[in-house]
What does this fold into?
Amino acid sequence: MTDTAFQKASPSRVGAAAKRPTRVATVSWGGKAVQIGGTHPVVVQSMTNTDTADAIGTAIQVKELAMAGSEIVRITVNTPEAAAAVPAIREQLDRMGIDTPLVGDFHFNGHKLLTQYPECAQALSKYRINPGNVGGGKKREDNFAQMIEVACRYGRPVRIGVNWGSLDHELMARLMDENSRRAQPWEASAVMREALVTSAIDNARRAEALGLPHNAIILSCKVSHVQDLITVYRDLSARCDYPLHLGLTEAGMGSKGIVASTAALAVLLQEGIGDTIRISLTPEPGGDRTREVVVAQEILQSMGLRAFTPMVVACPGCGRTSSTFFQELADSIQSYLRRQMPVWKTRYPGVETMNVAVMGCVVNGPGESRHADIGISLPGTGEIPAAPVFIDGERTVTLKGDTIAQEFQQIVEDYVERRYGVGARVHNQADS
It folds into this structure.
């Protein structure tokens, strides 16, 4: 036997690094409290794209995002009409039984809206302030202070969100001047990244000096290039202990936005950096806004950081699988499982960790199905028209005919009830 890694004292470690130690901020509404930071799980956020002045339309979209799994939802508050509508949005959500906290996104006139519309300030659970968009010079200091004072008055946490598209011009100019006097000046992009980090931390410290509690501040430094985002957040995480909100701003549409966001956030999350995430996808015409929530959940679940819904393993298909039946069945089962989760997550605790395999031929089908909690291996081209079903590693039944899809879905339902239902919990408690 050759000298191999197997002869090492211990196996290689699998999994993300431990989360970086941070303060813990609480975003709450009613009896619901979302903990951000510390050892708490990474939180999924999203944002509406409705006109906030349309209270009913915005409340409906918030509900859709919340039902899809968004634990915090941000809404634009940009006009007096929008600010006036926020209490009605909150009231409508409460009537619908949606206690998801709302975050107000403020730019340019946030100091006026928060002070002139106190009901808006109270109906929001958190404020997002972009220090690059609150004015310049003395006006900037006064406007920022006004917003922090409102947050202190109502006990609301604040995300200080810096964006490279709206950096503080005065800070950037000062850092550029300092850089020009270096013996070896940095590249302009490096100065910009430093400006992002400096702006976020300096404004957080100023907010604390104005009275905002140290555990009521969350930071973000958003850019739209993957490598810049990774570098900025590594630097930011090394220089402060505030919880961090991750997101690739203006990520893009469709697969480009999904791939870019995943590439950036996966690296940071693997290093233990990040306490909340949002996937800033541009919706395709007529597209579903909840797509960004699903992608965020799938990133976290694929990395083993959280579990939201049963995962479906399906083969990509090849010349052995000329029929599209297994693709249709995989899509049907995956959609079915996600639709059930609003009910299942309370009725069947733990079901979100279930693994389902829908495979298309005999090559990897039986093996993958055995590794899953429940799986089916469909016949490939030229194979016997039969589909063995495996439960907890054992072959239990073979399905045939035109009702394979319906029968397999019923088997999944029965399995969920048997393994995660009340009877299973009572049995497990008795054994323990």
Observations:
- The chain has a mean pLDDT of 95.
- The CA atoms of residues 418 and 424 lie 6 Å apart.
- Residues 325-347 form the longest helix (23 residues).
